[in-house]
Design a protein that fits this description.
globular, MFS, 17 helices, membrane, Growth Hormone, Chain: A, mainly alpha, transmembrane, MFS transporter, 0% strand
């Protein structure tokens, strides 16, 4: 009693659902809606050399990093707000609007007549993605029923699959079409989006709108502006010179306004963008510090790698994509082994993953120096395997430290921190990479990025071992 019973009459699978449970085809549909924004992070990296040539951007210019930084900043800064909007207006409804926005902004990117329009389109595309992801997870949680665990497992594996398809599929498309093929890497999102817009109302049940849900629009806007201005300050520091101080001042002013607004919210019944007490646990704060270097290093790596393979080593886009495939494959396979590894090692699993990744990064530095493709494949496999273990163990550790009453919001906050960390790494290491490219070439620049990432991996190893030792002492 009390459960909504499905109708016994026969109905077409594409007709509006007459029950409130998300079935397997509907799960695949909403996962596809999440898959495309994930893939766009990797596929845009493959497009960077073509974008640079088409818009006449100098090799090593930090301007190019804005293609990735803008997307990640828009994506990360709106994830929390996107979750609240979905709660208030219904998750399927918000997902439909967000997918439509992603479709339109993909068209803007694909048709961009200037680099400035492309960067603006990428920021808006990332903002649309920031509203897509919370709705997908919310719909799985609320409507998947007995299929929930399986759906979450499928969702967890999509990072590796999206990287694999984005890197190889995007590279193959560039190789086959040539010329302005990078534009097709964005345009290809359009037919997928149109199909999703048609099927979502027919295959996915909505959640009940909660009009009493308060949305801190001002806080969300100030947070987004703070993130954007900070990342643009870092990305353009080598181009604007002293003029970058104006952006730095803007970052401080907007960031101060956001912090002040959050403090005022703490004294009211209206929830702030980041709930009060989220970071009260010192172990959680330490774990966040542990997370930042890992994701920052990954951002710089993904920015520098496609340019080095295509422009530094002279590989075709297809071969460059094939050389990165072992990384995506290693990530995908190792992510499934995380529960077992973490069960045996606990927090020490993070150190194990970072160690494997560090060995791969060191091997990659040698492979780039001697231009050895076989060694590069082995190194990339180790990097991906280490990243899969580290990321899975780190996410599980962080979420376990979030207060139970804030678990749902905690996931959004942590995902935001991850995306902003990747964007920060792309901006900072992208600037370093560009400076070295202009003075010493792509190979040397890539080796510098890899050495920095090895040092960041060492920080993660040391911090995670200290955390594991502290937990053993505390457990006695």
């Amino acid at each position: 009693m009390g459960r909504y019973l499905p109708s016994m009459r026969t109905r077409n699978s594409l007709s509006p659902p007459d029950d409130r449970e998300l079935r397997t085809p509907g799960i695949f549909l909403i996962l596809a809606c999440a898959f495309v924004p994930m893939m766009d992070t990797f596929i845009a990296g493959v497009a960077l050399p073509g974008i640079r040539r088409d818009f006449g951007i100098a090799q090593g210019s930090a301007l190019l990093s804005l293609v990735l930084v803008g997307y990640l900043a828009g994506f990360g800064s709106l994830l929390i707000l996107g979750g609240r909007v979905g709660d208030r207006f219904g998750r399927r409804r918000v997902l439909w609007v967000a997918v439509a926005g992603f479709l339109v902004t993909s068209a803007i990117c694909g048709a961009a007549p200037t680099f400035e329009v492309l960067v603006g389109g990428r920021i808006l595309q990332g903002a649309s993605a920031g509203f897509v992801m919370p709705q997908v997870l919310g719909l799985v949680t609320a409507r998947a029923g007995q299929r929930r665990e399986r759906a979450i497992s499928w969702y967890s594996s999509m990072s590796g699959i999206s990287a694999l398809i984005g890197l190889i599929g995007g590279s193959a498309l560039l190789d086959v079409i040539g010329g302005d093929a990078w534009r097709w890497l964005f345009i290809i999102n359009i037919p997928v989006g149109i199909v999703a817009l048609i099927l979502l109302p027919r295959m996915v049940p909505d959640t009940e709108p909660n009009l009493a849900q308060y949305i801190d629009g001002r806080g969300g806007a100030l947070l987004s502006l703070t993130v954007l201005s900070f990342l643009f300050t870092v990305s353009l520091s080598s181009i604007l010179g002293p003029a970058v101080l104006a952006l730095a001042v803007l970052t401080v002013v907007v960031g101060s306004a956001w912090l002040s607004q959050q403090r005022r919210r703490a004294g009211t019944t209206k929830p702030a963008v980041i709930p009060q007490g989220m970071f009260a646990n010192p172990d959680l704060r330490w774990a966040l510090v542990l997370m930042l270097p890992f994701f920052a290093g990954a951002g710089g790596f993904l920015y520098a790698l496609p340019q080095t393979l295509q422009e530094g080593l002279g590989h075709s886009p297809l071969l460059a994509g094939a050389l990165t495939a072992p990384m995506a494959l290693g990530f995908l396979v190792s992510s499934f082994a995380v529960p077992r590894i973490r069960g045996r090692l606990g927090v020490g699993a993070i150190a194990l993953g970072a160690s494997v990744q560090g060995a791969g990064l060191a091997g990659m530095a040698v492979a780039v120096t001697v231009a050895s493709s076989p060694l590069m494949c082995v190194a990339m496999l180790l990097i991906g395997t280490g990243q899969g273990i580290t990321l899975g163990a780190m996410n599980a550790h962080l979420l376990a430290l979030v207060p139970a009453e804030l678990a749902g919001m905690g996931g959004g906050v942590l995902l935001t921190a991850q995306q902003v960390s990747i964007a920060t790494g792309t901006a900072v290491l992208g600037t370093v990479f560009g400076v070295v490219v202009q003075s010493s070439g792509h190979r040397t620049a890539m080796v510098v990025v890899l050495v920095v990432q090895v040092l960041l991996a060492a920080i993660v190893i040391i911090a995670s071992l200290r955390s594991a030792a502290g937990r053993r002492v505390g457990g006695r």
